[in-house]
Design brief:
heterodimer, A: alpha/beta, Spore Coat Polysaccharide Biosynthesis Protein SpsA, Chain A, 2 domains, 9-stranded mixed beta sheet, two-stranded parallel ribbon, 18 helices, globular, B: mainly alpha
Chain lengths: 422, 236
């Protein structure tokens, strides 16, 4: 209970009024007035339909919205949801909003939600993204049911995605988490996820809140904590991911809160991942992935150009991070024209592993290491796009699978570099 | 007459012996101080070397760009250079302390000035090291930011940042050492002013296209920019 001290008195008072709950829905927000209304409406509809007998609460942790987001969350009454549902809630559905800071910080938002879940002794919790435009009641239900009824501790979502959507996930995060931690978790960086009270309490008690990262990438940390803590994990298909959610995000900040967090976690989790060999499938409810193949314009020329220029301009930085052989190979491919250019899977895996070991050794400033990865990732994206341009869904699946196998095969190379003094 | 000469000679020998006897303990003290100083300086060198290795000082100096300078000058590693420097400085300090015990007129002032200069020397070395480290850090940060923003001439920008910081650091170091303060101040003003003027002219003349593109991208959301946004793939 020591973590309740950072909660405001008013928020604590509201939580005390609620009492104990069975289900908690966490909603971290920041200026989401455009979409949050429909998200809250969908949450309420889901609770009414699927959990009418359970005591439920919506906890909105707001990062200083100025567009009336919090008013929208608390203003929607239960009555607004009834006309669309045939059933009535037998319990009161509470909505509480708290402002944790004047600027959004995902780590503080999740910490607030976890602390509320601990105080309210929630059995099953779910965190929902407030900017989903196509959220359905089934999404929440699919994330909650495995926790509430089947005793799982973490439910990670799987989506219907375009084959070129989420390429950082398919080309780095998923294969690397799978190879190192031995768990085939497709969405380790989860915008929406369900979790049990005991996992939430355990994570809340971890000393990860004051590590100077401002809570960046806390979703990934949460998933890794569940894996290393040997909690019961499953995946649940929830629907089509809206790619516009992340389109505005710059690549470098995204790399910081995903790859940076993963590299950082490797240091503390070394004893666990170093002994893992192979990988295990995660129980999945519904399909574990659906791939859309509709045509999509991709500016390949720009990707190729940014890779080639990056390799040429950042040579001094790469000399510190990469081995001479990897750097020489990168130089060779950077001189190839657009038609002939390919960033082979093996070279990509070696590059990522060398970046990870350089990050661990702090060869140069860690943030600079992450930034230096951006142009190389663009080169890999170019190759992935070209290789799968005309490919079927099965071809894409096979390509991702072969990349994962490559990550697993070269894991001893990472261990070797990790342990070396150079 | 003969007795007088013998007496004077005896007096001279006596004076010499008395003078020597007067100085001998001081000389012994000086030798002891020099020997003890060597031992202390050696111990300090060994401890410092271990501490610097533990702190991965060589890597830090590599980041600062100091290691490259040392390699070019065929000097040993930064850890070795610093440890040897501290060794000689400590030993020299003890030797001068010993010399001051001898009480030689005229040397006292110089020795005092040397000891008063030591803190300035340490501060100057520290400023130089931290300054080079900052120059390296900010130039790399500029390079990475420029490359990731797809800006042309990223290396030139990075080099400009490094040069400005380095010039500034050297001017502060010379000021701290009290070496040709006025000259350094004027030189710094000229170099800094020239750099700024050069950059302004380069940006205004040579980089007209770059400036136009930069301003357009900053203030005008043109068709190309929209297309680029559309083409950006979602990484997550």
């Amino acid at each position: 209970m020591e973590d309740e001290t950072f909660l405001t008195d008013d928020f604590l008072r509201q939580l005390i009024n609620v009492g104990e709950v069975d289900i908690l829905v966490g909603l971290p927000t920041h200026n989401n007035a455009r979409t949050v209304g429909s998200v809250v409406h969908t949450i309420r509809t889901c609770i009414l339909r699927n959990f009418p007998r359970e005591r439920a609460v919506i906890i909105n942790a707001d990062g200083g919205s100025r567009d009336g987001t919090t008013e929208l969350v608390t203003g929607i009454s239960i009555g607004d949801s009834r006309p669309t549902s045939d059933v009535y809630a037998l319990r009161t559905l509470h909505s509480i909003s708290t402002r944790y800071a004047s600027t959004p910080r995902s780590g503080v938002a999740l910490r607030t939600i976890l602390a509320a879940a601990e105080l309210l002794r929630a059995k099953a919790c779910v965190v929902m993204s407030p900017d989903s435009e196509n959220i359905q009641p089934e999404w929440i239900s699919n994330l909650l049911r495995p926790i509430y009824y089947d005793g799982f501790d973490l439910v990670s979502p799987t989506y219907r995605r375009h084959k070129f959507d989420g390429l950082l996930m398919t080309n780095l995060l998923y294969p690397m988490v799978r190879a190192l931690y031995g768990v085939r978790l497709r969405e380790a960086y989860m915008p929406e996820f369900g979790f049990s009270g005991r996992l939430g309490n355990q994570f809340l008690g971890q000393n990860t809140w004051n590590d100077g990262t401002e809570g960046n990438g806390v979703e990934l940390r949460f998933a890794l904590a569940a894996i290393t803590g040997k909690y019961r994990i499953c995946q649940s298909f929830i629907g089509e991911k809206d790619p516009t959610e992340r389109r505005g995000a710059d690549l470098v900040p995204t790399l910081r809160q995903t790859v940076g967090v993963l590299f950082s976690a490797l240091e503390s989790d070394f004893s666990q991942w170093s002994s893992v060999t192979g990988s295990q499938a995660v129980p999945t409810q519904g399909t574990d992935q659906e791939i859309l193949l509709n045509p999509l314009r991709v500016n390949r020329k720009r990707l190729h150009e940014m890779f080639s220029i990056g390799v040429a301009q950042l040579e001094s930085v790469f000399q510190s991070i990469l081995s001479p052989s990897t750097l020489a190979e990168l130089h060779r491919i950077s001189t190839l024209g657009e038609e002939a250019f390919r960033y082979p899977a093996e070279l990509w895996v070696r590059t990522v592993y060398e970046f990870a070991s350089s990050y661990q050794k702090s060869i140069i400033n860690r943030d600079h290491i992450i930034q230096a990865l951006a142009p190389l990732f663009r080169g890999r994206v170019f190759t992935f796009v070209v290789e799968n341009r005309n490919g079927s869904a099965q071809d894409v699946v096979n390509n991702v699978e072969s990349l994962c196998v490559e990550f697993e095969r070269l894991k001893p190379y990472l261990l070797e570099r990790w342990k070396s003094r150079e | 007459m003969r007795d007088m000469i013998v007496s004077e000679l005896m007096q001279a020998v006596h004076d010499l012996a008395r003078g020597f006897a007067h100085y001998l303990p001081r000389l012994i003290v000086m030798v002891i101080l020099a020997l003890a100083g060597w031992l202390i300086a050696y111990v300090v060198k060994m401890i410092l070397r271990s501490v610097l290795k533990l702190l991965r000082f060589d890597r830090l100096s590599e980041n600062a760009g100091a290691s490259q300078l040392l390699t070019k000058a065929s000097l040993p590693s930064a850890t070795e250079v610093v440890s040897r420097f501290v060794f000689w400085l400590t030993w020299l300090g003890f030797i001068l302390l010993g010399v001051s015990v001898l009480g030689i007129m005229g040397l006292q002032d110089q020795i005092t000035r040397f000891f008063l200069f030591l803190p300035h020397l340490f501060v100057a070395v520290l400023i130089l090291f931290l300054g080079l480290l900052a120059a390296s850090f900010f130039s790399r940060a500029t390079l990475l930011a420029a490359v990731n923003a797809n800006m042309p001439s990223a290396r030139v920008l990075s080099l400009a940042v490094r040069s400005i910081i380095t010039v500034f650091v050297f001017s502060v170091v010379f000021e701290e050492l009290g070496l040709a303060e006025q000259t350094m101040l004027v030189a710094f003003g000229i170099v800094f002013g020239a750099l700024m003027l050069g950059m302004a002219i380069a940006f205004g003349m040579g980089g007209r296209d770059l400036a136009r593109r930069f301003l357009e991208e900053r203030f005008v959301r043109d068709k190309d920019k929209k297309e680029r946004d559309e083409d950006e793939l979602s990484p997550l």
